[in-house]
Design goal:
The chain is of the alpha+beta class. The protein has one domain: 3-Layer(aba) Sandwich (Glutaredoxin), CATH 3.40.30.10. It has 10 helices and 7 strands. The strands form 2 sheets. The chain has a 5-stranded mixed β-sheet with strand order 3-7-6-4-5, sandwiched between helices. The chain has a two-stranded antiparallel sheet with strand order 1-2. Strand 4, helix 3 and strand 5 form a beta-alpha-beta unit. Helix 4 crosses helix 7 and helix 4 packs across helix 8. The longest helix has 17 residues.
Length: 237
């Protein structure tokens, strides 16, 4: 089992696109609806009466979701090297803006079930209130230590290393229905916003982009700051 996970890890670290192999019917129905988005939008020229095709660093999308506090959502996969590289920029941005903006992460295994344990650990860490500490450690575990989670005891040991008691860690990881509900909700969001690859950022349920569209890893959160100032259904206070 462990050898299979590590072999799969080596083969898949370079991929940040969904697999064609679907794990179950519900996720298959969700993932098969994921399609590529249009890369440019029509914008009005200021002061003019005609339209120009402007290559903005984000896509403007329609959504029925709103929020009382500005929100930034990152769709990502732990095995994705681009997500791993973006992590340090996300952490730096959250340190400066975490009190003003709700930063939410939605993980996916991209159809590769061998990484499902990372989704489970992610959701359990969120329930334990230690996700900010767990996320970078999970990236390090996978990309630098080349280690998966081999068992439930392995996960509990991981949580206790982050200061959680063994009882609380065991209780969180064994709450299967709650964890699965969160994972399923994440897949629904991936489908709703037609996320075709990761990492993808969604700002205020209105502006969506990836690293390429933003112009590079170091530009991603510049685009986040820019789009947070734009009109949306979310409060900008």
């Amino acid at each position: 089992m462990k050898n299979l996970l590590l072999t799969s890890l080596i083969l898949l670290l370079g991929a940040c696109q969904p697999s064609t192999d679907k794990a179950n019917a519900s996720q298959s129905e969700i993932e098969k609806n994921v399609v590529s988005k249009t890369s440019s939008v029509n914008a009005k020229k200021a002061g003019g009466d005609f339209s120009l095709l402007v290559d903005l660093p984000y896509d403007i999308i329609e959504s029925d979701q709103a929020c009382e506090k500005p929100i930034v959502i990152e769709f990502f996969a732990y095995q994705c090297p681009h997500c791993y590289k973006l992590q340090k920029y996300a952490e730096a941005w959250k340190q400066k803006n975490g009190d003003k903006v709700n930063f939410k992460t939605i993980p996916t295994h991209l159809g590769h079930q061998e990484f499902n344990s990372f989704l489970i650990v992610h959701q359990a860490a969120k329930h334990l209130g230690i996700l900010d500490k767990a996320t970078p450690k999970m990236f390090t575990r996978l990309h630098e230590q080349k280690k998966a989670f081999a068992s439930q005891d392995d996960v509990i040991a991981f949580f206790t290393s982050l200061g959680v008691t063994e009882d609380k860690a065991r209780s969180a990881i064994q709450d299967g229905p709650k964890i699965q509900a969160d994972i399923d909700e994440g897949f629904k969001m991936l489908a709703k916003y037609k996320v075709a690859g990761v990492p993808t950022l969604l700002v205020n349920y209105r502006y969506q982009f990836d690293v390429t569209k933003a112009g590079g890893y170091d530009k991603v959160f510049e685009v986040v700051n820019e789009t947070l100032k734009l009109p949306s259904n979310c409060s900008t206070k």
